[in-house]
Amino acid sequence: MAIVAAVVAALFHFVPGLPTYYVRVIDTVLIYLLLAIGLNMVVGYAGLLDLGFVAFYAIGAYSYAILASGQFGIHLPFGLILIIGGALAGVAGVLLGIPVLRLRGDYLAIVTLGFGEIVRLLMNNLVWMTNGPQGISRIDQPFLFGFALKTPRDFFLLLLPLVLVALMLAWRLECSILGLGWAAIREDQDAARGIGINTTLVKLLAFGLSATLGGFAGVIFAGFQRFVDPVSFGFWESLTIVLIIVIGGVGNLVGVVVGAAVLIIVPELLREYSEYRMLLYGCALVVMILVRPGGIVGRRYNPAWIIQKLGWR
Amino acid sequence: MIRKLLVAVLGGAALAASPAFADIKIGTAGPLSNAEALFGTTWQNGMQLAINEANAAGGINGQKLVLVRQDDQGDPKQGTLLAQKFCDDDSILAVIANFNSGVTIPSSDVYNRCGLPQVTNSSNPKVTAAGYDNLFRPIANDFMQGGAPAAYALQTLGAKTTAIVHDKQAFGEGVATVFRQNFEKGGGKVTSYSGVTATDVDFSAVITQLKTENPDIVYYGGTMPGVGLFLKQLRDLGMKSTFFAADPAFLPDLITTAGPANAAGAIVSFQAPPYDANPKLVKFKGDYKKSFNEEPGPYSAYGYNEAAVIIEAMKRAGSGVTRETIVKELRKTKLDGLMGTVEFDDKGELKSPTLFLYKVKDNDFVLEWPKS
Amino acid sequence: MTLRFEGLTKRFGSLVAIDAVDLTFEPGKITSIIGPNGAGKSTLINMCAGSYKVTDGRILLDGVELQRLKKHQIAGHGVARTYQNIRLFDGMTVQQNLEVCLFSSYFGRTFAEVFVPGMSRRLKSERAALCRDALARFGLARFADALAADLSYGNQKLLEIARATMLEPKVLMLDEPAAGLNHGETDCLKETLRSLVPADRVVIIVEHDMSLVMTLSDHIFVLHQGRLLFEGTPAQVQANLAVQEAYLGSPGDVDDIRDAARSRANRVRLRADADIERRGLASV
Amino acid sequence: MTGFLIQQLVNALTIGAIYALIALGYTMVYGVLRLINFAHSEMFMVGGHVAFFLLAATASLAGGPIGVLVMFAVFVATFVAVGLLGVGIEAAAYRPLRHASRLAPMLSALGVAIILQNVVMLFVSRRPLPFPPFLPAVSFKVFGAVVTLNQIFIVAFAVALMLALAWFVNTTTLGVKIRAVSENPQTAQLLGININMPISLIFFIGPGLGALAGTLYASYYGIVVFSMGFIVGLKAFIAAILGGIGSIPGAMLGGFMLGLLETFGAGLLPMLTHGLIGSEYRDVFAFSVLVLVLIFRPAGFLGEAVTEEGMVYKRDF
Questions:
Q1: Which residues of B touch D (CB under 8 A)?
Q2: Where are the alpha helices (DSSP H) in chain B?
Q3: Count: domains in chain B
């Protein structure tokens, strides 16, 4: 416990001292981490491959953009929209979940992919609401408990605790009976029904919860950028989030953390190669997957292992 | 431990980034690895040219100029990250960023916070809406880009009807909207206003639809290769309407893509006078070909111009060249540039934006309007 | 407490797998269903467990019409089963395989478990305690933290039975529990099965291993081509000629040999299946 | 009006034929490895470029239509070249991952796609390269619709290729082996079929067809550009799904269906709704259909029905 506290304290003390660019990079990592934790619930825990996760991210982002900007002259507080955006995304998650209950594997993946694209295209087409490809700019400066969230540092101080809480809750969820239920569905849905698990309910919970996290991340992203446009929510974003959890180690929160760090920081390290960057990134991807197909972090190095290593229960 | 790790990881980036000492650096971020790579790269080549010339002429009071070229992939998120990177790097005194309006708008917040002089190539009117005093746009915005062709179409060509197609991107839809407004204001009739997908290659369905409307003008708001393909298919399907496109189409590739016969008669708006109009441009075109052995891209001249504006300001700032002084000097800019005089109004917009309309005639762009 | 099948019928297209069968199962007894391959034994279990839709007829458990319910609801009413070719949660530990069976009783407390400090640990140890004696009874305690997939074939069979009993079922259906086990394993299986029959539980076994059936069951149903051919005690069944004609083909003691042979065949076959499954089908 | 409809139909068939050709590659690979081969779209793109440079080599870029002989020579060469590339990629990036999770190869395919695209962009050309038409620009008027020789050729050639493939898979020994492997790799393996050979073959034919599609596409639209793969690839993949992933006739049907869907979405929707729903809703329309089809008939139109359990081919991870 003490060690964890120390590490967290160190982060709080140390990171804001870094040059702003690094803080911004870390913020980006944290936002993606939030997304990855969410997606991991569906893909990692319940074994439902979702390629349209970015849709919920977009819903969250646009909730803030629309409810706190000149777009309609509505200016709701950040905290409130955080809840609204999360809720909207969560509802969307469940609504998507209902029709695809019967689908699994790639079939599910493709339907979710289609759903994600549809959402993006609507954001691009419903000009009266989303201002279309022009995007919504001059979004309100977020305030939380009277503090203005202006610089990347402010956002770091918001994001870090949020992510830590999300991680903790996700872990407790993983260990909870619901987490076990998800695992059972992932392993053998029919047998899971056979031991009395209401797969419908449990799946919808997975969709809803993960979507909610996606929504949160979206709201924060919008507040962070103070500009949203459909470009930021393409199919590629969905793939990036999937990549994060797969490269890190599917279903393993430690892996998810590592994955987020690697997949955001590596491209930043490659910046200096300017136009060769994406080429190197592609090579890095293939190599990483070939070297560790199961993800960078092995299954056994999960939070439980850390907790035990820390000698804390 | 964590500290070490962070230092190691992020420090790596810092080292990689750290400059050769005592150079003055100008940062630039644009799309270098996505579908718009052609534009981004040739645009930055233009800047490189201007900077090479400046260095050949002894640089800024003895210091060498360096262009730091970055790839934002037209992605707002990366745009802001890069903005922060430039802000933190004290050796960077000015930036030319970004190419896409959707990236410039969020990144300008960041540049403004650290008072880094920013010269942008994004033409969307919204870009200057925030009224940041460190943001300058030495090119015409979409109002000009979409307005002049409308006037020309109505007055010179006496067109009555137009069909407008755009690629649902910030730029394409932007100019298309302005064109539409002006055309209607001028008493013309818009028979249809439709969006296609930027990545599309097959427009036959839409064109077949347009055919039933048979408008005098077809305006396409979008970039290459879309424009070329659209024009080609427009003619293949036997439509004779005069074709209008914006400056991304000011590119030999338009003619090669659409085919000389199809391209003939197409009207393309561009902000620079013909490359043979004045010695500056002739030289520019020659130098560009020499350095990069290809034709200048549609934005190469703009990039050159934008860099030139900054270099001028730096020269005037003299010994005490800092971000602040550069911003001050940029405001006072009065440069007889590649594409005419550059002066900024208090919003940082080009005071007297120019626009030229070119007509495709036997494999070349020939000045059509204004007739000099 | 009884389980009754009334006019239970299952058709696959034109094929009639089960033809208006009426059966009654007594609690506190082990009832075996035997019959040649394709007699419809497994089909009965699958219908009872809700894996197959019932074409016609009713399945009554304490007056509840099971055939109207969804699979997980049937399980909720206390019907548990094992599968012909083992279906464990391979990626989960042995412990977890049992723990997850407590889903329906703990699901309501999920919110508290996640959000109330300390609750997570409390409920977890509570569940662990519940798993412990099951682990002990089936001699799996030392594998508690091993992945189910890594267990030996015999232990996997045991684990599957353990998982079924975790539900404290009123009806426990075992589909070929001894298939693929060697004699030693079969013997200790017998012991375990005997210990699984409290007074209020219906235990149904579908099995080819005659020696097991005859020594273990209190009552036997003999199915033939989807119909009930005969029912009675092991002695009566063995005495009955019709059964021998239909099922064993020829009288008496040859059986054990043939069954031994068949069960060895089973063992080989099922091992292969299990291996392939474990390796993952697309390990192409 | 009839002219309008027929014109749209012709447009639909042409683009549909190209989708279908690419879809074949996706569906064959998926049928055997259950792998969404994200790199396939780039095979299509590379194919276009290879053909371009072959033509350049044969100095046929001089302009004007190209002789039939040259044309087919180019087709064959392109097919082989890209086919070999495909085999190489499979051996390097997918085969090592066969025993890994199902997501791993999918994502390494993604990486390969990024690499191919950037290699072409960096070392071949950023500019769209002008691709000559194979046939003279002859066009016929059919009930007021303009039909070019090129269009007729593309549809005919695509269909011919598909029939050839169908024949190959259904009658030849190799084809049968391929089918065996795709039916059930285990059994095939247990039967002692060396599964590597059929798989390599699939990774030769699939990309080859993709490359031909790229060539036809390039000559039809008159350009090749490094970024042309991704979207067309995604669409073709959707086509494969619509038709029934894993089914070869399905891929063909799906391709033409998607072509029709798109043209309908872009051309007719605006007219029927009087511009209420503009052509920009074309993709929304297409994707919605995809989603609905998958929800109500997961196996697509020609794929054999799948059970809920059947959808999980292998643990995802």
A1: 33-35, 37-38, 41, 168, 192-197, 199-202, 204-206, 208-209, 211-212, 224-225, 228-229, 232, 236-238, 253, 256-259, 294
A2: 2-17, 37-56, 76-88, 101-113, 142-155, 170-185, 204-213, 226-236, 252-258, 260-263, 279-292, 300-317, 323-331
A3: 2
